[in-house]
């Protein structure tokens, strides 16, 4: 166990060194775009929504309603971005994963290091975004700061399965399906911008399958101070299941690709 932790730490150090050279290229997707969404939807559109009353949103402002959803959505998008093309690059194009396992590192160590770096990216980006949300008045309850670990859990719940999916692709065309039929619909229809109860029944149930909905529901209940312990536990267990199963599949996929 100690050796696995040490190997994973070394992998994380590698990715952190790479990120120190490339972090400026992530500023727009990680920080600027979420801020623009918050300003345009929460403040711009929110002023029109609030002027017609907030009864449909439980008596909270539209900014306070969507802020937790935008936090969770940011975590999902960062995790998917880091688990698609970078993983494909390491396996197929630049093949730096192959060099890594020529050392004492195992495929599992490579996966843990990659996921550790994704966790770092999700945590730091969402921490900055959470500060901005707080400054804008988007948190109604101090419990809203717990939306940060929820966002981190969501990022891990998404990153594992996506990394596993990347190992079975022959080229990057499959990523278009992930974004077109996974990320975008989840972003729009997982309760970030409106209650999913307003959707047709068959779409509403599809929303509940999405890990994003569970993260949005949990983050919003924390932010608004309306936490139901049983529902919150269900959300956490669901996200943990995605993370554990996804990580196991990723380790299996990396092992098959790198060792055969």
TrEMBL record:
Residues 25-257 form the ABC transmembrane type-2 domain. It is found in: Cell membrane; Membrane. The chain crosses the membrane at residues 30-49, 61-85, 115-139, 145-166, 178-196, 230-251. InterPro entries: ABC2_TM, ABC2_TM_bact-type, ABC_2_transport, Nod_factor_ABC_transporter. One of its GO terms (biological process) is response to antibiotic. Its main location: membrane. GO terms for molecular function: ABC-type transporter activity. One of its GO terms (cellular component) is ATP-binding cassette (ABC) transporter complex. Keywords: Antibiotic resistance, Cell membrane, Membrane, Transmembrane, Transmembrane helix, Transport. Pfam families: ABC2_membrane (PF01061). It is a multi-pass membrane protein. Belongs to the ABC-2 integral membrane protein family. This is Transport permease protein. It comes from Kribbella soli. The lineage of its organism: Bacteria, Bacillati, Actinomycetota, Actinomycetes, Propionibacteriales.
């Amino acid at each position: 166990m100690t050796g696995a932790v040490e190997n994973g730490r070394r992998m994380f150090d590698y990715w952190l060194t790479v990120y120190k050279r490339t972090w400026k290229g992530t500023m727009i997707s990680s920080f600027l775009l979420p801020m623009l969404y918050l300003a345009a939807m929460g403040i711009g559109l929110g002023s029109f929504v609030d002027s017609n009353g907030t009864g449909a949103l439980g008596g909270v402002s539209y900014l306070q309603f969507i802020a937790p959803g935008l936090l969770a959505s940011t975590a999902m998008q960062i995790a998917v971005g880091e688990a698609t093309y970078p993983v494909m690059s390491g396996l197929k194009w630049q093949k730096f994963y192959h060099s890594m396992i020529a050392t004492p590192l195992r495929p599992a160590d490579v996966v843990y290091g990659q996921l550790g770096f994704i966790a770092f990216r999700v945590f730091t980006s969402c921490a900055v975004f959470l500060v901005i949300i707080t400054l804008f008045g988007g948190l109604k309850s101090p419990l809203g700061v717990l939306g940060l670990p929820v966002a981190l859990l969501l990022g891990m719940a998404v990153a594992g399965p996506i990394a596993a999916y990347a190992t079975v692709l022959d080229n990057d065309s499959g990523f278009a399906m992930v974004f077109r039929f996974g990320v975008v619909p989840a972003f729009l229809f997982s309760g970030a911008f409106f209650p999913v109860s307003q959707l047709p029944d068959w779409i509403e149930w599809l929303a509940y399958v999405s890990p994003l909905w569970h993260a949005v529901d949990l983050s919003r209940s924390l932010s608004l101070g309306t936490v139901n312990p049983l529902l919150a536990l269900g959300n956490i267990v669901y996200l943990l299941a995605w993370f554990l199963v996804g990580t196991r599949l990723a380790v299996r996929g990396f092992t098959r690709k790198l060792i055969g």
